[in-house]
Amino acid sequence: MRWWDIEPVMELEHQLFPEDAWSRGMYWSELADTHAHGTRHYTVATTPEGEIAGYAGLMAVGLESDVQTIAVAERWQGHGLGTVLLTDLVRESVRRGCTELLLEVRVDNLRAQRLYERHGFAPVGVRRGYYQPAGVDALVMRLDHPTTNNPEEDHG
């Protein structure tokens, strides 16, 4: 994701998340952190015509990473784009040496929960009233990354 993607991302953001859309400032801040500190990774998926069909973001600090956002335009839902975006975030989390990837998903977003479950995420808790201003709870889900064993320690 680049600065010129923010306006089309904002259009999708307001369509998909009318109650709890991020602000332009939040996206500007995330992209600034991507370049200043390297703790963020944001990507967009485009149609053959160059329109943004989806976007996703990751925060990785130390051994932990967190899905900041993931969204797919309604007309592209059900075509595997969510899987492509989520796979990109999982790969980036592993590449950065993280041991786990966390996310929050609205408790009423069953479609997204099924996507995450298909990719190995498991529920680990609930954040009450997380999504504002509606006060909707968030289901916290986690994916543990496989750790590589040190062959010198494998003396079985």
Automatic annotation (TrEMBL):
Protein name per Swiss-Prot or TrEMBL: Ribosomal-protein-alanine N-acetyltransferase
Domain N-acetyltransferase: from-to ranges: 1-146
Annotated keywords: Acyltransferase, Cytoplasm, Transferase
One GO MF term attached to the UniProt entry: N-acetyltransferase activity
Matching InterPro entries: AcTrfase_RimI/Ard1, Acyl_CoA_acyltransferase, GNAT_dom, YpeA/RimI_acetyltransf
Organism: Streptomyces tateyamensis
Family: Belongs to the acetyltransferase family. RimI subfamily.
